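Exercise 3.2. Students should predict the tertiary structure of the chain below and write it as structure tokens, then compare their answer with the key that follows.

Predict this chain's 3D structure.
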Amino acid sequence: MSGAALGLEIVFVFFLALFLLHRYGDFKKQHRLVIIATLLAWYLCFLIVFILPLDVSTTIYNRCKLAVNSSPAESNGSYVTLAPSKQKCFKPWSYIPDGIMPIFWRVVYWTSQFLTWILLPFMQSYARSGGFSITGKIKTALIENAIYYGTYLLIFGAFLIYVAVNPNFNLQWNQLQTIGIAAANTWGLFLLVLLLGYGLVEIPRSHWNGAKRGYLLMKAYFKAAKLMTEKADAEENLEDIMEEVRKVSESIKYNHPLRKCVDTILKKCPTEYQERMGRNMDDYEDFDERQNSYPSEKSLAKLHKQVIYSVQRHRRTQVQWQILLEQAFYLEDVAKNESSATRQFVHTFHSQEPENKIIQYFYTPTVEWYWECLLRPWFYRVLAVVLATFSVIVVWSECTFFSTNPVLSLFAVFIQLAEKTYNYIYIEMACFLTIFFLSICVYSTVFRIRVFNYYYLASHHQTDAYSLLFSGMLFCRLTPPLCLNFLGLTHMDATISHKNTQPTAYTSIMGSMRVLSFVADGFYIYYPMLVVILCIATYFSLGTRCLNLLGFQQFMGDSEMTSDLIDEGKELIRREKRKRQRQEEGENRRREWKERYGNRDDSTRSRAVHTDQKESSFSETNASRPLSKYTRSNGRTERDRIELLQDAEPLDFNADSVNDDPLESDSGR
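Answer key:
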């Protein structure tokens, strides 16, 4: 079992990262290099989080061996026995042999740093570029990243000058490496505390609010109003871009040197626009360079970039609108079924996707009613209390982890109590739950935040390549300082505990932070205390209120603008619900019409065809008779009348069908 735990976690984390990437990315449409780079970044970061508890348990066992070897001892199988006190150092079930973890951490850490500082920024510019060739995209990416890389070189040069001027330091490769690691971790810790302060409050509060009746439904109405505005803006933007593409396509003819660039742009347009532009294109007209002014390749590259962005945004808003409608309809069904006397969950609309038969067998309407209307609110409340307790422990430990005598960090107390009894299962579970909760608070914030349309992680395969790569960069920059912060909370970092003990393998590759004393003894110790201020600001929704004042509508219960948007969203959902109801009623009437008159129409059509064949043969054999053409004509008229009656659909004369609302014009038509 020495390496089995490490191997199992490596495989499990890979499939976890693959599952999340499949949820947010699109394997079919996005470039393979983008998928591979993002998957590698996510995989390495998740791997660090899952493997670090094994490093902690292995380090505790190695410390025990060192203590035993310093005294007379006897070897006995899988543990070492201390002669005077008969103390036993049991080998943990997940023990990793010496020499494996340092190599493993070195490969994982430096690969993630290469991704976040060099490869992923370059791939971002490459994926967003509107160039028509690989060389053009590479050139654009290098130009855009020149300032980016120059800024980092300036920061590293400042650290290098500080160390060079200080006479107490001798510049060596290990110290230069430590300076680079310290600079990266300082930037990551600065962002880590901001995201952590938001997640520690928002995650428990979101679960608590989710248990309130009507809260999720009101929030769905609010999202519907905002998303409808964004959807209309995306459609208008797409129409404007397609109009520019049409003009360019009509001006640049088939024998123009830039026609290949125009064809590349047309391939990125939606199908209906391609067909419309193809009908209006006259490929047989030659171009005249002297009479017409043609766009340059640079302007076409800019237009290509705009087309990619507008099409992606339009498709994302369309998918999100359909998903939001399903959520709103389901939440309305939950509100209606809460007062049901039969205690069976009744859906207004049937699911459009086929459900699993196993799920249908166990998740019956009765089970669904008890879960949605009775158990789920209480489950969310209990979960919110547990998460809030964890948040309080984290905030307390962040403010007191620098105290070693007495030990005030609760996580350090838990680990030290388990270390005395060498309960490795408890140590690994405590470490895993701690770092997993910290990771959830930080990573969930990364998935939630949205920087206009510049960065936005949208589920259901609607995230663009730029946002996927940007998330990989954030994960690679946040995970190393997150792990160092966790080791500081548990006093497994010698810099915090001030003990001359064997460090963890992860800490050993970071080097001694004493090279930069103001970072090791100042920033790393006192900056995490700001999480208290950030938690208070998040609890009182100061950031949300500031955004609301600036004109960015946020969901706030005591805001008049929020109430107006909720009413607007409620009306939009009501109209979409009526539209879908009319569609289902029309399909049901069509189905009933076919079931009732289908056989009769088939027999009538067969008789009509048979009669027509007989009359046709009769007219051919008696072509000299003047009345034969009337007989044939009458047969065809009768057949056409029967076919028209068969294809006719019953009309729906309901009060809702007569509506002047423009949003329902399609369904009314």
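Discussion points: Residues 1-69+89-218+353-555 form one domain. The chain has a mean pLDDT of 81.
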